[in-house]
Amino acid sequence: MHKSPETPEPASTSRGSSHARSRRPRLRRWGLVTGAVVLVAILISTGVRIFAADLYTISQDSMDPTIADGQRVLVDKRYPGPAGAEAGDVVVFDGEGSFTPYRGGTSLNRVLEQIGHWFGIGARSEVFVKRVIGSGGDTVVCCDDAGRLSLNGEPMDEDYLPEPVTAENPASDLEFEAEVPAGRMWVMGDNRQDSQDSRDLLGAPGGGMISQDRIIGRATDVVWPWSENRSLEGARP
């Protein structure tokens, strides 16, 4: 019986199939490596933002001109550390329960604000930025004959304010004397005419003192817009 010879598979088809099979493991390895790198980067970024440093969008004018509305600041979350808050530091803190009412822990607005903060497209309504004027053990008084605040009996040189302080243009229109208990701080905005700060809480429980436990961190730099990037380290009394 005559047997027809088998038709050989074209060499090009055989080589192409073999090449495709050899590419699959490489593509899988590449995908696994890329996924692992992305996951590690996300974990590192998350850890840094939770424990070390974060970016916050400022949606208030109370620190103008030091920090303007809409600017983003780098916040050192390792602050205040064992030494506690110090006069002159610009701090970002949670004002819920002092400057804003308490909200439910499952508030949808809270969740949406946190997501917006994480992606840099919004500001959390309970987050405030102010300057520490006095901390635990300090006495802050407004004002002396030259219109200046005094800290523990010494006049404060506040050259970061929008206008020079004089007897006619005092550092605060509201006179006060505040003795700051341990673990708390007296805070004020640099834009004294348009700042909700410790002065607004005089007579309230706590007497205007903000617990240092509410501090999120210290604002160290303006980072956005890039054209206005600068350090905040020099803006101290």
Automatic annotation (TrEMBL):
Please state the Enzyme Commission number of this protein: 3.4.21.89
Entries under SUPFAM superfamilies matching the protein: LexA/Signal peptidase
Instruction: Output a single Gene Ontology CC term carried by this record.
Output: plasma membrane
Q: Where in this chain does the record put each Peptidase S26 domain?
A: 36-224
Concerning PROSITE patterns, the annotation shows: SPASE_I_3
Name the chemical reaction catalysed here.
Cleavage of hydrophobic, N-terminal signal or leader sequences from secreted and periplasmic proteins
Alphabetically list the UniProt keywords.
Hydrolase, Membrane, Protease, Transmembrane, Transmembrane helix
- Keyword Transmembrane carried by entry: yes
GO annotation terms (biological process)? signal peptide processing
Top-level lineage group: Bacteria
Annotated compartments:
Cell membrane; Membrane
InterPro entries, per the entry:
LexA/Signal_pep-like_sf, Pept_S26A_signal_pept_1, Pept_S26A_signal_pept_1_CS, Peptidase_S26
Listed transmembrane segments: 30-52
Q: Where is this region: Disordered?
A: 1-24
Name the membrane topology term: Single-pass type II membrane protein
Q: Which family does it belong to?
A: Belongs to the peptidase S26 family.
PANTHER family tied to this protein: CHLOROPLAST PROCESSING PEPTIDASE (PTHR43390:SF1), SIGNAL PEPTIDASE I (PTHR43390)
Q: NCBIfam families under this entry?
A: sigpep_I_bact
| Protein's recorded name | Signal peptidase I
| Species whose genome carries this gene | Garicola koreensis
- What lineage is on file? Bacteria, Bacillati, Actinomycetota, Actinomycetes, Micrococcales
